[in-house]
Design brief:
This protein is α/β, with parallel strands linked by helices and 335 residues long. The protein contains eleven helices and 14 strands. Bound molecules: phosphoenolpyruvate (PEP) and manganese (II) ion.
Amino acid sequence: MILILRKDVSDPDREALLLALRRAELQAEEQAADGRRVVFVTGPADLLRELSVEGHPAVERALPLTSPHPLVSRAAARAPVRIGAVAVGGGQLTLMAGPCAVEDRALLREIASAVRGAGAVVLRGGAFKPRTSPYAFRGLGEEGLRMLRDVGSELGLPVVTEVLDPRHLELVARHADALQIGARNMQNFPLLVEAGRTRKPVVLKRGMGSTVKEFLLAAEYILAEGNDQVILCERGIRTFEDSVRHLLDVAAIAQLRETTRLPVIADPSHAAGRADLVPAVARAAVAAGAEGLLVEVHTRPERALSDGPQALMPEGFRALAREVTAIHGALRDRS
Ligand code: PEP
Ligand code: MN
């Protein structure tokens, strides 16, 4: 249910309403929309009916919620999500880049300073890696997190890194400026709930076999726990086409921009799976409305411990950054 509060609602009335909702163990999220205060209330329908909030002095109108994911829906106000000092979704194109995995401190520093020089404002790198084979490199764990945090602070870049397991959430949150929940974990509901209980920004990647609706419902899990700092990342879905690793769903980017209030970014690296195709996929993503990109870059891709074939060299990333910035600028000028 959406409660539209009276224009002249007093603070005590507003607070009494929120208290009554929370006492009834209903989720209540207050937001400003079109100059009005609105409260999104979610919870069991019978509890909502029992409370009969329509008559409350703070409430002007109560509207039924028609969306299955009301908190992420467009009805609410759009606001940028901050990763450190970087605002994602505030009108700028945000470039996040770095290696697939954190492998070694000196190498990470080399890659990080190269991507920073080319226009990246957030450093990415996995310390906990979800690998198809248990025998592949699965990341440096806590040591990798420390390297990421140290190199990020040295270079003034906030860092985003993947959390695989709810048991690691506190540890990862201690070192990272933003948590990445990867494609393979998009429907790991206990992980979504725990991420929702932190106040860390979350980059949520679309599952490779998930629909847009399932993606939005996964984001809703995080918001329903009280964390609205969520960035949606389209990273390609699995289809019959096997000349690319995944297939970037360009229409999903446009659709997400239309239907949600959350910033939408894209990952052209995991979509293409091949460095030669990453720039074209990146350009398409930005043209479709992506507000940022997450790109894998390595200075020695042939020696990378994971995802080397899709990693751009710094020069390639620099050229990509130039192109997508021009496309983003052209779209902004048009609107
Ligand atoms: C990654 O970003 O390195 C990663 C594993 O991505 P995804 O979850 O999209 O496969
Ligand atoms: Mn990767």
